[in-house]
Amino acid sequence: MPELPEVETTLRGIQPHIENQRIKQVSVRHYALRWPVPENIHLLLKGQTVQQLERRGKYILLKTQKGTVILHLGMSGSLRILLQPALSAGKHDHIDIEFANKKLLRFTDPRRFGAFLWTEDNPDLHPLLKHLGPEPLSKHFSGAYLWQRARYRKTTIKTLIMDSKIVTGVGNIYAAEALFAAQIHPETLACRITEEHLIALVTAIKTILKAAIKKGGTTLKDFMKSDGKPGYFAFHLKVYGRAGLPCINCKTVLIDIRLGQRSTVYCPHCQRN
DNA sequence: CAAGACTCCTGTCAGC
DNA sequence: TGCTGACAGGAGTCTT
C-alpha cells in the first residue's frame, strides 16, 4: 500500500533524524521478510554512519561508508522514528536501528512483503535495481519516451505503466487514477495509443504523484507517518476504491475489472479505447 | 524477449 | 460470536 508518495513522505520524515548519524546497534526480531534479512546485518551496520538516504522507485536506500541498505516497504511496511529508550516492540516490529543521537528507526511490516537487504557494491547495479525504468517525476519519463516503449507492446496500458522496467513507482492506485485523468481505458493495448494520449498520460501521472506527495501521501489504513501518527486519508481518489459508485464527471457507474491480477476501476463513459 | 500466472504474508471483511 | 474463505497488493520469478 505504500505507493511512491508514501515512500517519499517516509523518506523525508526519517531523513532529518538519521542522516549523518552513527549506528549504535541493530536488532532484528524477524529475519523472514520477502527475502531473508542478512543474518550478520547487525555486525555490518554497527558503527557505520548513514551518510545519505535515497529513493529509487519504492526502494529506500540507506547509504553508509561500507555499503547500502536496500529497503522496501512492500505493502504493509512502515518506518518510524522513536526516541530511545523505545516502546517495547510489537508483534510486527521486525527491525530496530539505534543511533548514537538517541533516535531509533523501527521497521514494521505485518505482511512481511517488505525487504531489508545489504549490498557493498554500487546499489544501482543490484539485481533488484538495475532494471528499473526512469523515475516518474524525472524528465526522462516523457511522452516521447513512453511512446517509444509502448509502440510494439501488446499488453494493456495499465499493465505497462505498472511495469517497473518501464517506469518505476507507479502502483495500482495511481495507475487507475492517472488513466482516469487522461481518459484512457485501462484495457487499451499499449501499441494502439497515440503519442498525444501518452503525453497526456505522462502528465497525469506526474501531476497526481506530485499532488499526493504534497499531501503527505495517500494514506490507506496501515500507513503511518514516520513520526508514528497515522497519516491522512485526505487525498481524493476519483476511481480507485469507488467501483459501483457514480463517476464524478458523468455519473456513470464505475466498473471494476481485473487486469494482471489487479483490481482495476474505471469509468466506461469517460475512458474509451 | 514478451505476456501472463503464480507467489510470498496477514489483516480485514463478508457470509453463514 | 466464531469460523471459513476470499481478497488485497508490489514485484520478483516461473511458465508458456
Top keywords for this entry?
273 residues; alpha+beta; 5-stranded antiparallel sheet; 6 helices; DNA-binding
Write a structural description.
With 273 residues, the protein is an alpha+beta fold. 23% of the residues lie in helices and 22% in strands. The protein contains six helices and eleven strands. The chain has helices at residues 4-18, 41-45, 143-150, 157-161, 172-181, 195-214, and strands spanning 21-28, 49-50, 52-56, 59-63, 68-72, 78-83, 93-99, 103-108, 115-119, 255-259, 262-266. The strands form three sheets. Strands 2-1-7-8-6 form a five-stranded antiparallel β-sheet. It has a four-stranded antiparallel β-sheet with strand order 3-4-5-9, with helices on one face. Helix 1 (4-18) packs across helix 6, helix 3 (143-150) crosses helix 6 and helix 5 (172-181) packs across helix 6. The longest helix has 20 residues, at 195-214. The model is unreliable at 218-224 and 227-234 (pLDDT under 50). It binds a DNA duplex (16 and 16 nucleotides) through loops.
Helix count equals 6
* General shape: elongated
Radius of gyration: 20 Å
Helix/strand/pairing class, anyone? alpha+beta
Q: DSSP strand (E) fraction?
A: 15-25%
